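Repro:
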Amino acid sequence: MKEHYDFSKMKGKNNPYIKYLKQPVTIRLDRESVEYFKSLAEETGIPYQTLINLYLRDCAVNHRKLNMKWAS
């Protein structure tokens, strides 16, 4: 980098992509689910964490809800 650059007069800018950043979370998944997404990752070349995120995002965007009935 050249020595004559003067960055002291630069104004900072907010990151326009901050709302798109991912939030790290810890979740517990059963082994079969993780293996399923890992096998999909091998087929597609997409990391399994990304595949899980894409699947969850699709559910959220399309307002999909799990149809569950609790035993009484």
